[in-house]
Amino acid sequence: MLLRLQNNSLFQQLKKYEKEEFGLTNFPISNNIENHLINVASQLLNRISSFMPEYTSHNIEHCLNILDIIAKIIPSEVRLNIVELQILIYSVILHDIGMVVNREEAEKLKSEDEFFRITMEYGEETDDETILTEYIRRTHVERSLSYIDIFNSSFSTYKIDFTFREKDITQFIKTVIRSHEKPVDYLRHKDLYPQDKLISKYRVNIQFIAILLRLGDIMDFDINRTPYFLFKHIGIKDETSLSEWKKHLSIDGYEITSHKIEYQATCYDILTHRRVQEFLGWIEHERKESMRLLEENGVSPYFLLLKEELKFNITPIGYKYNDLVLHLDYEKILQILMGTNLYDSTDMFLRELLQNSYDACRYRNELLSREQEFYSPAIQIRYDSVEKVFLIEDNGIGINDDVFKNFVISIGRSFYKSRFFARDAMQFSPISNFGIGIISCFMVSEYIEIDSLKENCDPIHFTLHFKNKFIEEKEPLRKKIGTLIKLRFHDEYAKKIEQNDLVTIIKDVMSYQPIPISVSVDDFDTEILNNKKIRLPDDHSIAQRSLFFEFEDSDIIEGYMMFIGAGEHQLFSTNKIAQQCFVINGQGSNINLAPTWLSNVRFNINIPDSHKIQLKASRSKIESNDPNLLLIKKIIMQKIINIFRQYEAQLDKEPFIQFFSFYASDGRARNNHFLEIELDFLMSIPLFLYAQVLPTEITFSRKNIYEIAQGFKNKSTTKIAIVPLGYMLNENGKIRNELFAYLLSVGYDFILISEQVSIHYFYQCIEPYVISNILCSASDVSGLTYNSLTVQNVDSISPFLYSLSYTWTTIDDHVDKYFCLISNNQYNGFNLIAYNKKHRLGSLLEKYEELAAVKSFKNALYNSFIVVLLQGGRLNEFVWNIQENHYFGLIGNGEIYALKFQKCLTKRYIETLNTALQQYVLNRLIEMKEILSEDSKQYQLTIEDFPSWYFVEEENI
């Protein structure tokens, strides 16, 4: 290793200069490199493979290879001075030191926000170690710079001397290292990469040293970095690492001189062939851009002679190489994407173009702010309704030829997901991420014309033709930095925007415009959209039932939400959930920020860069477990709860319950688990009329679930009867004393009044305590049908104890002893009859429920009882009416169904019901040999199978 270093011509030149600078026996720089820098770097770099065994080699051999390559490409006429050589060698040896991590550091890295964001780029099958390897690769440069600071500040430990004649050169070494993750354009920053920096008495070209490191690093492309025996020993599983190793292993050899670069390779599959060719293309790109930069500097003693294009020859074994690619029918693909709601409206093309312009402006703004240059971003839209020509222009970063060819016309490849963008280390978070936005323009136009100029690049001018699938290159016209996109609308869309103008569309897809947008149609007056925040509706003060609440105390959500009162839905219809100012709750959206227990909540909010939700490609679909989404839901939930708490403090108990019930839903549905704060709130609202069952006078009071649970805290089990509010009072408006006497006699501890809204909140909140929920009826208490809950104490309540069930699916799951009962579950689509699955006939019908005869019998029974419900009277004969019917909206939700069935059945009805049961159901099961003929009588029904008060007293049955 030291011998290789000592034989390197650059190192030998350094020692020669040292002899001239310091004397015959004093070699402070080279001795420090040999005895300390190489020693420290070797030990640390060797640890990369122990932690990331599947990663291609980045050890000390790689560093020495780079020095050898640099020595070859530097022309003999170019002489680096002693300081330049010192900076170069230190930079080469330490450029990858940031890839070194220990286990403790690795675990810390996994907890960082950036690590989480990177995981979003991978499928669920990718393990953390693979993602961590990629994260370390992306951040290793900054980590390398941190290592240098550690070495420099701890000289007694590492003994690496970062000085030249006591002048600290650390910052120049770090600047050179930083360059190898940046684009070549970055080296044009003269303050960072000066060409004539005076250090001691020497003039140093930092820019040239950075170019040498970059070229040497990327040209170290051969089998020595991926030894074959190690490749076989490791058994690489990760596909990315595997392709990298195979790519390097395929290189047979290379020749690098001051005038040319040539590689030869042998590949055994076309994928490796293309990866090798792609990487060689990247080397060629680096050579070309570096030479262009040096040529811009004019005549200089610092130059390279690599003017020839890179040469290569790849020998294919076992396959025939071709450049064929899969051609797709973009017109059909667009139709498919539209059919799957990727874009819910043709208007979305405008959203995509505006997002691209916003990203471009923010990109340029950040670059110029680093230079402390003033910049005023702007976007202009012009439309000619006669020619149907639409133009959108911005003064953003612009597009160069490489970006156009690699990203704009490569559908699905996002520039903002690329290493090109990553190298600029932008602080802003791009809105565009998927690389598919440009195709949305083909929904409204047959072509897309792009005219753009990026700073320090040649302008571009291309037209993408949809029908013929070709790209036309035109003479560049643009003179100022930015991008102009031109479309010609289809006749159909042109007619559409006559009714729904462009300004309206922009306002619909944006929450506000932090970058101003000017819109002009047919050169008439220009309208400037320049709202800097979300504003309440102009007429919000006229609301009589709706309430508006702004998010003034949050740095995560901006805007407001509305509780919409009955009858005011059309007055205040806005429901915008935006991210980075662009609306994300489009048609088919799964974005729902309101709690399920709140009836009509609407939003006009924006989520900023810092807490943006991970979107799917449709922009209106979300990852439901995204941590920022969960945080936003929690903030909204807390805001809603605070609002109710404020009203609770201001109002008496009953007015507050009325207020809650006015804006709350009916409480039936749940499709997500409770949040902790949500559960605690619902458990603490005194919604429920509740009383202890006593032989003396009954007094009801409003209680919450916590208070109710105290009543059975010290008992093994407690029985609660849930009785409809309408049944509590008799015809004279007096409380039914016989009800309480009955409940006391059968061992009930408490009674809960079933009210229209509160009952379902009760069932939801009480769920963890419930052992059983049974529908019951008392034979000696006329008209009484109620739910009987057996509950137990639960030590602690948690959201994880709750299911996702709809509450009405559990109310009538079980019936006490009768064959069937008329339920009071008026919210279940008129699920009138609750069948007892444990009854002899009920269990038989349950077993054969898919049989047509069984379904018909149930329908006929339902249709006979619905007559009583709707018309009253008695049932004298069972009618075989098997059609399925739905009777919606014919009776009120507050009615007590069971009361209508007092004295509704006759002996004749039971007899005719049994006749039909035998003929259509039991005989069919006998034919199927599922039951015996002599056993069929046991399934016949009697008066004991119904409450006695269902029957007419005058008849002798």
Structure keywords:
957 residues, alpha+beta, eight-stranded mixed β-sheet, seven-stranded mixed β-sheet, 29 strands, 39% helix
What does this structure look like?
- With 957 residues, this protein is of the alpha+beta class.
- Helices cover 39% and strands 15% of the residues.
- It is built from 30 helices and 29 strands.
- The strands form seven sheets. Strands 12-11-10-13-9-8-14-15 form an eight-stranded mixed β-sheet, covered by helices on one side. Strands 22-21-24-23-26-25-27 form a seven-stranded mixed β-sheet.
- Strand 1 and strand 2 (167-168) form a beta hairpin.
- Helix 10 (170-179) crosses helix 11 (206-219).
- The longest helix is centred in the first third of the chain and has 27 residues, at 270-296.
- It is elongated, with a radius of gyration of 39 Å.
Task: Provide a brief overview of the structure.
With 957 residues, the protein is an alpha+beta fold. A hairpin with a 7-residue loop joins strand 16 and strand 17 (558-563).
From the alpha-carbon coordinates, what is the Rg to the nearest angstrom? 39 Å
Helix content estimate: 25-40%
Which strand order spans the largest sheet, edge to edge or round the barrel? 12-11-10-13-9-8-14-15
Q: Kindly estimate the percentage of residues that lie in beta strands according to DSSP.
A: 5-15%
Specify the overall morphology: elongated
- The DSSP helix count reads 30
Strands, count = 29
